[in-house]
Design a protein that fits this description.
Shape: globular
CATH architecture: 2-Layer Sandwich
Helix content: 40-55%
Strand order of the largest sheet: 2-3-1-4
């Protein structure tokens, strides 16, 4: 099952952010992303999605690249997979500032709200999207 999750995550990274690869490859930088899997607590999927959408709008307004979402249809036990940018502390501060101005929670309070909506989640820091040839170059 973990292998299936890894393969799915790698597949999502490879196809979710193709323009990021072109931009970072041209600049000679490795593109970083955060892959998250969520299993939402029963009965509150819409509440979870609205909560995430509000924060996604703040991230957009702060100038961050979009997060790409995938909804589970069949197979493994997760509900949603998200592939988004790996942020800097400066970007996090900007997002928190905008969130506070809009009446959204931040810090521990936001963390507790989030945990009240999910059964489990996992975040994985990744390099990607990249091609197999790029990975070979990094490995030599």
């Amino acid at each position: 099952m973990k292998r299936r999750i890894l393969v799915l995550a790698l597949f999502a990274i490879a196809f979710a952010l193709p323009s990021a690869h072109a931009q970072t490859a041209a600049a000679g930088k490795q593109p970083y992303a955060l892959v998250s899997l969520y299993r939402v607590a029963p009965g509150i999927h819409l509440e979870f999605l609205k909560w995430m959408a509000a924060r996604e709008q703040v991230a957009h307004d702060a100038g961050l690249p979009p997060t790409h979402w995938y909804a589970h249809l069949n197979g493994d036990a997760w509900d949603y997979l998200a592939v988004g940018p790996s942020t800097t502390p400066e970007q996090d501060r900007k997002v928190d500032e905008l969130s506070t101005k809009r009446g959204l929670t931040t810090g521990m309070k936001a963390s507790l709200e989030f945990r009240g909506m999910i059964a489990w989640h996992t975040d994985t820091a990744t390099i990607g999207p990249v091609s197999a040839a790029d990975l070979v170059k990094m490995g030599q």
